[in-house]
Amino acid sequence: MSDWSIRLARPGDADALPAVEMAAGTLFATLPDLAEFAGNHAISAERHRKLIARGHCLVALAQDAPIGFVATQPFQRELHVWEVSVHPDFQQRGIGATLMRACMIDARNAGFVALTLTTFRDVPWNGPFYEQIGFEEVTALDAHPRLAAELAEEADNGMPADRRIAMIKFLD
Predict the structure, then answer these.
(1) Domain ranges, ordered by start, for the chain
(2) Which of 14, 15, 70, 157 is the most exposed place for a label (fewest CB within 10 A)?
(3) How far apart, in whole angstroms, are the C-alpha atoms of residue 60 and residue 98?
(4) Angle at 6 between CA 168 and CA 2, to 5 degrees
(5) What is the pTM of this model?
(6) Under CATH, domain 5-170 is a member of which superfamily?
(7) What is the full DSSP assignment across 25-80?
(8) What residue stretches are annotated with the N-acetyltransferase domain (predicted)?
(9) Distance between CA atoms of 168 and 115, rounded to whole angstroms?
(10) pLDDT, tens digit (0-9, with 9 covering 90-100), for 42-65
(11) What share of the chain is helix, strand, coil (3-state, %, to 5)?
(12) Buried b (16+ CB within 10 A) or exposed e, 41-61
């Protein structure tokens, strides 16, 4: 039996989620060329509350405390994944993959046709992870202006544009 569980996120979870994201982000310190991104950004609790109100965010809990989450937002018939984070003390237990599988089920049951996200192409727990669970790189960004705009905004905010990609997972 596992020592963690997942459920839909509740507004009361929002205050704990930025700390989970900041802790998870410290893993970037292991990548010299991306160390500047190590634990220096998190979605605010206020924004989490707004996303949670949309009804599709999930949280992983251990002893009733948030240890991981997936933050999403509907965009017409697509559900966009803004962030998936698991606290370092709980990584390598399948929590992130379980959160994403649950997110896919929830999205499919809610009538979304796809999940979308932006991520680092070559960071093992980013692009390759999402590829393993069925996401594909969006190469025709002109057909996905929302994702193209997100990548452009990330580049404007200092993210290395050549390492960032948009991905999509169609839900059958």
Answers:
(1) 5-170
(2) 157
(3) 9
(4) 115
(5) 0.93
(6) Gcn5-related N-acetyltransferase (GNAT) (3.40.630.30)
(7) HGGGGGSGGGGGGTT-----HHHHHHHHHTT--EEEEETTEEEEEEEEEEETTEEE
(8) 4-156
(9) 6
(10) 899 999 999 999 999 999 999 999
(11) 45, 25, 30
(12) ebbeeebbbebbeeebbbbbb
Q: Is the predicted pLDDT of residue 1 greater than 70, yes or no?
A: no
Give residue 131's pLDDT: 95
Q: What angle (nearest 5°) sits at the alpha carbon of residue 53, between those of residues 96 and 51?
A: 50
Work out the mean pLDDT of the chain and round it to a whole number: 92
Tokens of 58: 């999930």
Residue 20 scores a pLDDT above 90: yes
Q: Is 66 exposed, middle or buried (0-12, 13-18, 19+ CB in 10 A)?
A: buried
pLDDT given at position 158: 83
Q: How far apart are CA 5 and CA 98, in angstroms?
A: 10
